[in-house]
Fold each of these.
Amino acid sequence: MSVARATPPRRYFLGHSYSLVGVVAALVILAWTLVAILAPYLIPHSIGDIVDDDYFGPMRQGLWLGSDYLGRDMLSRVLMGARYTVGISLAAVSIACFSGVVLGMIAAVTGGWLDTCLSRFLDAMNSIPSKLFGLVVVAAVGSSIPVLILTLAVIYIPGAYRFARALAVNVNTMDFITVARVRGESTAYLIGSEILPNIIRPVLADFGLRFVFIVLLLSGLSFLGLGLQPPLADWGALVRENIGGLPFAAPAVIVPSLAIASLTISVNLLIDNLPQKIRDRDA
Amino acid sequence: MSNLVEVTNLRIEAKTDAGRLVEIIKGVSFDIADGEIVALIGESGSGKTTVALSLMGYARPGCRITGGEINVNGKNMAVLSERERARLRGTDIAYVPQSAAASFNPSSTIMEQVIEVTRIHKLMPPEQARRRAVELFRALSLPDPEGIGARYPHQVSGGQLQRLSAAMALIGDPKLVIFDEPTTALDVTTQIDVLKAFKSAMRAGRIAGVYVSHDLAVVAQIADRIVVLKGGEVQEAGTTTAILSAAQHPYTRELLAAFEPKPRQVHADAGAGTKQLLRIDNITAGYGAVRDGLPLIRAVDAVSLVVEKGRNLGIIGESGCGKSTLARVIAGIHPAAAGDIVFDGKELQRSAGKRSQDQLREMQIVFQYADTALNPAKPVEDIISRPLAFYHRLDRRARSKRVDELLDMVRLPRGLRYRHPSELSGGQKQRVNFARALAANPKLIICDEITSALDTVVAAAVIELLKELQRELGLSYIFISHDLSVVEAICDEIMVMYNGKRVEQITPDKLTAPTHPYSQLLFSSVPKLDPTWLDGLVRDPELVSRYGHR
């Protein structure tokens, strides 16, 4: 009773309560999304142009984030990098979560041998280390944007499947599912209309988390040289190609790292502080 | 100070989601003398548990004691520090929770948990505490008092566990024990043993008690005085006999009226009852490995029954007797291993998946817990209109109109259609649950314990509703319950089940003279409003040992 619980300040708007942290995080994500969409119109220089006489140039007027290891404009490269990092990750996470969640719910509702086969197969997939899997695929078929998207999606399907199946199994034991079954409803109705609305919040949180993992894995692959190929560059690739600037404290290596951090941390904070619908009986 | 407990003008506030403050206890006052047992009675949400917990100076999370005095043994619990309160809890005041099963730690022995109070408060050395515990086990008439302490909670029955939690409360020699609906979850035959044990232990130790319950008949057996609560206010208070015989307040009368068995409806059209709607022959179903085509553990064992058109069949028995499994077998949720089901003249497939849509539509099942039977993510409107779209292929306008009609039928305001199940009361949820079954236009509705989770008054209203709907729509019900008074009120035939088998089938007018010994035991165990009933009750010990779950 006398124990005070520390809760972040919340604001009320349109029947939802928001926390300030969540709003700030959402703004950061929104900003990066706009950048990703509008990048070609925002960049001051073409990403391939060498505009500086020196390499690893410092921040100064005209070159707001300095220059990279070839003297190219860093600001333009980071803005365009957002396109690839956000775009590829979003595509991959959408495929991974959609297939994982649908398969997970089907497995939970159907049960029996289908559930067993799917679960064991995806467990086997899960046991392959993700970086190694990416390495093998890229080595085998070469690196291109569709290959990257599919590889990242396949790596994260088993996780999404496990998560959704665990949630759906709990909902599946509820009486309203039994009622729907004896009514004679199809599996598609059961998963879409009875189960999904009950697990959508944790699934969305998982979506955000998985997005972060994919951004990091993509950056990791690009850092290893297996991601996007030059002259295209996502943030991970930018870190890698400019790693030589580390001893010079060049902004070229710091800025893309900060970009990765700001996006992933914001997504994390947002899913921890999603707006809550106020359900007040007497209000 | 003359009384052990003096509560004056108690006020408790709760904070809602939106940060609004709501007063849930609005100035409650009552006293408890030494050695007196006072019952707090009222429907769910009336604040009876909140008041009882406040006697320990405890308010549930989100709640706060905002005013009034709670004097227990000369100390005002409302203003004591948390440390001082902790010293009194377990020694001066003890608590027996509703669900003993959920309150015991499954990973340590019963004895360790029973004597934990003496260890925390350093009351006596462990050896002495164990001896004292065994004495209490004996006083609470537990079997094998010497050895039961060495067992783990899952190794004893629910009724025993409830008595063990009373032993845990009594070991610190409290002056006041708070019982929070301790027998609500128990079967009637078990409830009697537990009540008797509580009563004699409290009498012997001259301990005062607060007994929270919504069951007036149980309260009549154990309480000296009754305080009736509603909406956080005391409606009426008085001695048990005074309240039972001459209740003043309308709400108390309503409570009492819910207890009176309603005159059963008599079917005017005697000819209607001649046609069989459902017949099942020698149904066997169960769980576990299958041997010779039959499951190893048989929950339902060669049961046959007949339901006639426009008539109701009641199925009664204790938990674990297989009555719910039987309902699931008839509905096809749990396919039978052997036996035939004939519905409306046609042989039914055992599994619901193989039945035709019309067959599924004509037989609806309504479950006990409306909380889990309604999808929490959907508004009432969507829940009720799904069968309309699915079975009757109605368009949006027709559906909306029909939802209004159905809400009218189950006596719910039309505005409720936009709400989610979490925003409804227990009784309202059960009505929505029922409206969904009605939406299919069924011929038979299987009601699986649909009133068990409801308060007495609300349950009586739901039963009335079922009767009315039957008159209007010519439905048949299979009514499954462990509560005899409910089944008696609505059914034309009553089937008694024990251990998966049909024991006896009788009509309600012959209830007073059941022939089978198990039926006799079951029917004689239902508490009556008469306060002397428990003391005067004599049961055949041989019967109890044969059929009672001790």
Amino acid sequence: MKWINFLLLAVFLALMLYAATGLSNRGDASAPMNREFSPAGTPNAANFYIHNAYKDAKTPNIVTVVLADYRGYDTLGEVAVIFTAGLICYLILCKPRKNNETP
Amino acid sequence: MRLLNDDPITLLVSRFLSPFIMLFGLYMIFHGHYSPGGGFQGGTMLAASFILMRLTSGITIAQLQFNSALAAPLGALGVLIYFGTGFAAMVFGGNFLDYKFLPLAGLTGAELRAMGILIIEVGVGLAVMAILTSIYDNLLGDPDDA
Amino acid sequence: MLDFFLGHYAYWFILALLTIGLYGMIAKKNLVKKLVGMTILQSSIILFWVSSSSKWNATVPVIDPNIPDAVAANYINPLPHTLMLTAIVVGVATLGVAIALLIIIYRDYQTLDENVLIDRMK
């Protein structure tokens, strides 16, 4: 039965390698995600952030401005996620449990 | 878990290195504006300095550096700083997390947004540091051997 | 042909890493080895996103006063870096919770092998 695992993974790898040939070249400045306007006509988010980060927040680091100012709501969700994970680790592991009793 | 209390090299080097790692972590939080860094990276370095002491000297001695009971309140304080900044912006007239309306004196426009980003990064760094240390304490930190 | 190869070889290596992680999750019986496979899968996804954000002859997304920011081809794309910061932290949180669950499973059933565990759970 182990050969079914290998066959499945080989088919998966072949499919992913074929799909990766459809991507544009790595480092191309005219790829669809690096252009000025998206295919729908709206301004592209990454170029907007590069052009306007220093003007809006006087901060040279574009990644910090995007993380904490333009997309600050997502960072709030992420801090909530890590706080919840820490709380889960405490609540699972620090209560005394016997083998056949439910708390 | 066998402790390394009888190995002088590890004890000495970890005790010497831990304050410098903490200092570098603090530097990374506050220089997130001008170089790669920011809240998450600096918070992880601070947690690494505490976990180094817990690994080499044992959990009982490392309580002198950072008490395990402090971890959950500090984590909640970090989330509260983040949420409180957004709420203060809402109270003083803007949208949620709109830094132009923060009540800091003497700053206008783009500099106010830079100061809002700094407050948020401090909150995030505090929360990440406290929670990573608390995860390590809960997984590995039973004080049954000194 | 050569620049097609130069533009795509990084993606092929990262997808091979993804398949190795998936192999670890599917084909191994020990629960800890499955977790290691999950971590390898996650690292490969982060590498894929970050490596796809590069541009030729461009510098890091920290604004230098000598390099004008009105031309967007001077700085690499900052958006995948931001999204992957969140992904790394979420991965650490998931790993912490998974290891806590493994500790509880070992405490209750005294085994970490998948088939023995299913037998003991009946």
Amino acid sequence: MIPEIGQFALILAFCFAIVQGTLPLIGVWKNQTGLYNLAVPAARAQFVFIIISFICLDYAFYANDFSVLYVASNSNSHLPLAFRLAALWGGHEGSMLLWVTILGVWTMAVTLFAKTLPDSFRIRLISVMGMVSIGFLAFIIFTSNPFERLIPAALDGRDLNPLLQDPGMVFHPPVLYMGYVGFSVAFAFAIAALLDGRLDNAWARWTRPWTTAAWVFLTLGIAFGSKWAYYELGWGGWWFWDAVENASFMPWLVGTALMHSLAVTEKRDAFKVWTVLLSISAFSLSLLGTFLVRSGVLTSVHAFATDPGRGLFILLYLVIVIGGALLLFALRAPTVGLGEKFDVVSRESMLLANNVVLVAAAGSVLLGTLYPLLMDSLGAGKISVGPPYFDAVFVAIMAPGLFLMGLGPLARWKKTSLPEIGTRLRVAAVISVLTALLVPFAMGKITLMSAVGVFMGIWVVSTTLILLINRIKSRQVTTPNLLENIKGIPLAFYGMLLAHFGIGVFILGVTLVKGYESEQDLRMEVNDVAKVGALSFKFEGAKEIAGPNYTSSQGKFVVTSNTKEIAILHPEKRFYPVQGSVMTEADIEAGVFKDMYVSLGEPLENGAWSVRIYIKPFVQWIWAGCILMALGGILALMDRRYRIANKRLTKETQDVQEAFDA
Amino acid sequence: MIRLVKFLIPLILFFIAVVFLFKGLYLDPHEVPSPLVGKPAPAFTAPILGKAGKTFSSEDMKGQVWLLNVWASWCGACKDEHPVLMEMAKTNKIATYGLDYKDTDADAQAVLAAEGNPYKATFTDVEGKIGIDYGVYGVPETYVIDKAGVIRYKQIGPITDEILFTKIVPLLKELEK
């Protein structure tokens, strides 16, 4: 009964989405209040029914209802409860339901928090989000029904893929989707603006917080995924340039460009056409990512069931949504105008360069991701594009952008002088060059890549600090009290600093782990000792233990440094009987300066094992950098400016409204 | 006019991408042609399952067309494939030999005893060394080897009825001529 309620709720949500996506638009066009007042209630009703549907499916997982095909395929009665609930998004149908649920959450948020926008604009915005929802709900209902019954019911389920049985599964997909799908708001803003003919700095100011919020989620989602891969896959990699990773990374790059471009549009009323195009592109790349994952056109560790029928449906949807948006763009954008002029050396041109770099980087990732598909469909054979291409091209494109990151925020709007920036950054340049020479020397091996990497990382960190000092100094005349001075600087500025600082930390982490990680692949008998640098790893044998739905061989390693015991590691080799699969669970002693990482390979005779020991210097800095970036985004979101500006706007609109009414 | 065309560029690029994505839907990215197809099958000598002390040499198969099916007791997809192999065995026209990959003899024999044995004989590859020579990267995999000992076809993943009738049977007919 519960699954039928879920299915019925989903169909009702679909009906409300149709109302939300069509009638209010007609209402705005024909100026019929009755129709456009439908937007908000329809959006909220849609949200409520999607949530009901979501809860019904998760209840089926909770109650081990194996008469539901999707539950029987992705869960098992021995699976721990948290994983059963998260198993909802462990397969194709449920992931799509999660997608549409999160779209519902964003739509709901828009109806709640975007109250200050002018009516016609707000109605169009909500209606466009309804249109996006129609396609996905139709996709679920007609091709991927998660509530399909299995008669007779299975005695027990086929279990969740053991790779997914990890706390990462609980957080990574929802947070990532919050980011992915969150760009639908910026997309809807762009479409509404094109329909409305309203592309001004007010529009940019309204779009900014929504874009930043989606970006924060996407940053965290990608970082979670990377961390998860690091400890789960057992060989210490943290990024693989896998098609699906790229699918989440491309919207991130374009979304980052969009955040910067929006700043120019808001402050200088420039880059308008470009900003709209980026808004459309960020979400289009999210949709493309969904297509790549769901249709199975590319091989990936994330590939689910592949079915050309489903792929065709999503492709058709892409053609309608993205094609429609770009057509509207082509028709309306020529009338937008260029905005204010700026000098070649100015903050505008620095931000333009930032945009070009980020978009070129996204383009190179897109090319690398789709290249195997291009070659195959041209009959040019099967090839795969791997890390060598991505590492080389991506780093080469991003490096100049990182250099500019140090200059950009110091440049003035409209026109700035290079010598002036140069003088301000002398200190940063000296510090960066010195550390770029000293750090590789201290690490014991000097290579060009690590010197360049350290230079870039320290450059970004030090210029960011100088920017802060400069800002405080320049305010000292008007605000002599240091505490008040610091308090008076807007949060958005601190947010930018923190996010840029995070990029620097991230670069240092990547550079040092790439340059100085070490790996040993060895055969260890019980009581063997492996030496890695100053550390000794003693293998004290493996014992059998039983988990809730698996059995495991758990090894014990005692790590000593100068005869002092510093860590005990318990890597495991788990066997999950339901799917008959073996999983490697590495054990990691994480630290600020290095991670010690041990994983078990295969059992050998007499209790010996093949063992992998990795030392990963500064690897945690990679994720710490991402978290700083996300925190920066959150600070920017908390800036009072948006709220004040919005309030002022409401007041104005109300005055105008009252003037009309009177 | 030129101004207008400029704004159409994103749309045009998008439609070019769509054409490729559409074509991509009908291609199988998992289908990687094995470099071994058309080359002599790597020679091996391996113990025969259930016949302690006896070994099998792939050289003995010269002059026969045969199938080498790589399987294991721990492999889930092999259980899906098993009924198809049993059907093939019943016809008595296809010589299927098993290669028990990274498995224990006891587990393998238990599976064959419980579910039926479709193989003329099964060889064991406990350490997976023969698997490396054959480029096995997932179980099950099946190789069709001709009278001259050349690999003529490689099936990655389970043999389905469709693959059996459209690919393997026609190929075997041709090779038996």
Amino acid sequence: MRPFRALFAKELVVLFASPLAYLALALVALVTALIFFDHLRVYNQTLFLYASTNMRGFDTGSVPDYVNLRDTVFFPVMETLGITLIGLVPLVTMRVFAEERARGTDELLLTTDLSPGAIVGAKFAATYLFVAAMMATSFVYPAMAIVQGGLGAEHLAAVFLGLTLHAAALASIGLACSAWTGSQLVAAVAGWAVGFVVWDFGWVASFQLVSEDAVRFLDALSLHLRYGSFAEGIVSLGHVAYFVALAAFAAALARFSFVWRRVSGG
Amino acid sequence: MSALALCGWIALAFGAGTVYAVGAEGWFGRANLAAGALALAAAAVRAALRARGASASAFRGPLARGAAGVALALAGGVGLERAVTATGVRFDWSFERRFELSEATRRALAELGTVEAILFAEPLDPRARSTRLLLGELAATGRLRVRERALGEAAEEEDRFGVAGSNTVVLLAGGRSETVDRPTEGTIYEALYALRAREAGVAYVMRGAGEGDLSDAAPGGYSGLAAALETEGFRVRELVTATGAEVPDDADLVIALAPRRPLREEALAALERHLARGGRLVAFLEPGAQSGLEPLLARWGLASPDALVVDPASGALAGDPPGVNPLAYSYATTHPIARGLDASRMTFFRRARAFAPRPPEPEDRVQGVVFSSPRAWLAEPGAAARDGGPPPRPAGAEEDYHPLVAAGRYARDGRETRIVAFGDAELASNRYLRTLYNLDLVLNAALWAAEREPDIAIRPKAVVSGRLQLPLPVPDTFTMFQGLGLLLPEALLLAAALAWARARSA
């Protein structure tokens, strides 16, 4: 347990000693702020437009029901943030395994008491912690919309949970990609590619050759589908299990990369 | 990972992205997907060959164990997800509990047998997600099948069902259809109710002495009440009292909506005869009005002194001084009319009078159903507010629970007469009918009077709260949260600068 803790602590120190980590955190906070205020501006303009057209002030009867804080600001911000994370999270995960591999320090790690599984576990845990901090910073602006819109703390908790699980899933994908390469660039690009493909399998339905059953199966694997229900305030244990399963599969792949390297020599 | 695999991933991402964005497989998307798949397959084969070439027999064991670990994680993960999903455990943390189905909706579905729902939505309509979740919840009852159509994909169906825009649900059952253009549980419930096509009887609404108008759609009108009664299966007809005609024999219910002028003696006598032969009446009174209904109700044990209920527990509501518009939360929960209502399900009365229920005969059952708070008293109907507070309490006026709604059952010659009396009519107007639980109270009173107790329910709300439609000025929001919203990125950038400086000096 001690070497595990030491590696976990070392990963955290490396993460937080790097300017890149703080830049990523600041970038997430600023990008979210930009998306949020842009949607808020459009929402306010739409409301003013209806109010001035109808000459009835902000009488809710004069504004179409789809123009509201939740549907016009909060959900689109969450949607955009979900896609934005696909681009940002691999920037954090690309280094975790690939850097060790490029420097050859992964071999040193294997000479310690730590098994490949423990190494993977420590690195995944440290990255998840960082990702949770990242989500906390990104959540400041959408949270204020919920608080001001009176949507309730439980709904807020559901959205934050969904956002964190989504980011953790992207981190898992990024880590698995990082474990299979010595190049940080390759790890980041592979993380983006897999992330975008897994985000929404809806595009598969465009192919006439793909059967409806296959489309339904793939659709059920989409991150977007799982993440979306949290934004609506629904916490389904099935969706939580999906994210846990994805993380477990990614960790198993990362662990297997150690064995594979030993065998292939790559 | 080889360069070949990297190229494969890039091509795959561009291919999938193109198909997703365009919504059709063009040559660019197809070519990229094919190239990506080929590159990845080639990279995998090359890696496998390299591994085989490099592997000695000693490596085969760890390799097999590693691969088995991956397979096990995949199988375990899929199994876990499937098993947990099968339990169907989910929590509705949304503000208004939008996805928890009410008993009334479940019952409406059960009565219909199997219902088919078609959701017409544009692919990127954000509202459709909420509707899908709601339909999923309804489908989980096992009584609803859901289909989805992209808007514009089935023009003939859209014309047939009158689909006007995205996020519209069409419900089909027994060869009938109902179109819901703002799907919430409440509107879907109303459509399900309409699909049942059940006959609840005939409700006659008195006209001719300045009663509330059921054809008036203005906020002060009662068209909403008429629509709600029809949704519940009542056929609503007018009963013109000016002629002094008898109440028709097919009347299952007579509704008197606060006549402003005195009713003719003949009309009151006809109403009395209707009640004497086991008739049903729902009467709405107003403080300060004397229509002749009051003495009639008093003879049936529902006396109502002409006084205004002042309830200091209710604040200044609807632009009136505090206390004059009672917000009721005390109910006789054993009475069927109040079934499902409790302290958290309040009803709103706009100036009300009270009743002093007393059974005219020992076997009669007369009681209050909805009460003011125990701090309420009775004042003159025109009592004015003083110093921004409620109207003053007259000398001798006692604080008590004053019944705002009362009901009675009377056995006469083997028949049962039922009367419900409301101390206010505005609570049933278009402006206030859907306020809080007014609709449930009014409809449940009508259903009880018409002896349809099994249909008494708390209905899902058609209007979803929590959808804030007020402006949220950007400068205010920014200013209010700039402490956290701006400090955070700034602190993070400062930390990045420090980390960079430390790394440089090390």
